[in-house]
Amino acid sequence: MFQSFEVRTRPEQGPPRVAALRAEMAEAGVDAFLVPRADRFQGEYVAPADERLAWLTGFTGSAGFAVILAERAAIFVDGRYRVQVRAQADMDTFTPVAWPETKLEDWLADALPKGGVVAYDPWLHTAAEIARLTKALGPRQISLRAVENLVDRIWDDRPAPPMAPAIDWPVELAGASAGEKIAAVAGDLADAGEDAALITQPDSLCWLLNLRGGDVGHTPLLHAMAVLHQTGQVDLFAEAGKLADVALPSSVRILPETDLPARLAQATGRVRVDRTSAPQAALDALSAWPAEVVEGSDPCLLRKARKHPAEIAATTEAHLRDGAAFARFLRWFDETTPGGGLTEIDVVRALEGFRADTGALKDISFDTIAGAGPHGAIVHYRVTEETNAPVLPGQLFLVDSGAQYVDGTTDITRTLPVGEIGEEERTAFTLVLRGMIAIHRARFPKGVTGAHLDALARAPLWAAGRDFDHGTGHGVGVYLGVHEGPQRLSRVSTVPLEPGMILSNEPGYYREGAFGIRIENLIVVRQAAPLQGGDDREMLDFGTLTWAPIDRRLIRADMLHAEERAWLDGYHAEVAERIGPRLDAETAAWLKKATAPL
Asked: What pTM value is reported for the model?
């Protein structure tokens, strides 16, 4: 299996490790040390060798950070992880802090005296973050100091760095060769009057060079950084052994990763740096010499986000394949749960098995979230051998999962009933469904961002005095990251949506200790068809990528407006049409019933 259920951390491991870290802090003469979740690439998913936050605190969520002081220790987590952190970290040692509601700089200003020194590893924090902290803390006479990582000094059994080989990603799926992409991005730099750009995000390089790797779990990334020159030359800083079996353009020169700081120190001309993703250490090296640092976004970011028609066609096929596997899983769940005896791990294994039966599964796209009853309220719950709960009658079961196929990345969530479900759960489910349908049905002018649309998904819940503490949707790659920027449906998103961008649509509702609800499809931004009587302006809407039934037994039809009901019946009719022919006769018959009109 691609998913493991072992317990990777324990709360009792935290206190002695924090004590050892404090000894290192005292020796270094610092008052605080920052421990982020991120690695030097600022990715959401990190290799075992970079799981410093989990190793130190026990908290395994995909976002957050810790601050260790001589007498205090805090873990900053957002709304997705406030239940999880209390279960995984020792609460006598660590205090959870609500983030981003509480800003790190404000917390440090309150916790440290004047003259306090905050230490950090400059490879693990972005230049933008360090600039923000320096500006905020300077007037309070608190300074930041770059140091060698203090956690690494005490991590005696730290795993080795990843060395997975890279592979070529087929040009027929990418829609353009690596050479064509390099020329296009280099042309963007020339148009901007820039001589080069520092690229520090592995997914950007995988897209640019039509490569895929295996350096982190579930996301086919190659750990590498690069300098792209206006001339089209690419200096690729990576372990050469990982690239032995790939065909790179002649304009790509492979250099050791350790050479990056020295090469940056020798740079000349105008060099673009994305301060929101580049590590402070890289900026320090670049700024030490005559190069002119130009602040700008990663030059691959928007080109990667706007999927080529070939990528859309590829991922469409991947989603149909995945939809058929998911339909087989749903039928199995329906027929198996009445007999009882299932556990959360049984469900995860079964779902992965149905996907593996396609013969095309390369990996899962993230650890499957399979929460029975109260576990469904833990937004990013990961079942382990110790937390594995039975699937009981009367519960809601939340399953959020995805797959990596060579032609696409999938991500789907469904909430399923186990036997008879109460009226409160059905009411909450229907409110979430109405928000999801609102996003699917949205039409909007060019220039609209995810922040403008996020409220559509929340409006039915808000009207009932409810909400959820995560974004409505994130960007998704094509055989790359299941979470991909810069596009998203979120209150904080400022990126205009453009045709070809893939997003998730996943409103939810969570009642701690009782149940969780989330419904998720992937959607793609497209040009909207003109409407008779409409203005002569460019309008966009969403096409659907995910095809799977939404459980009708949980829907209160009396709460749906006529257009919402029509959308749902139309969606289900299309699920049957697209997925039915890919199924065996018995599953196709089951699907026909599951997608019948309300």
From this structure: 0.95
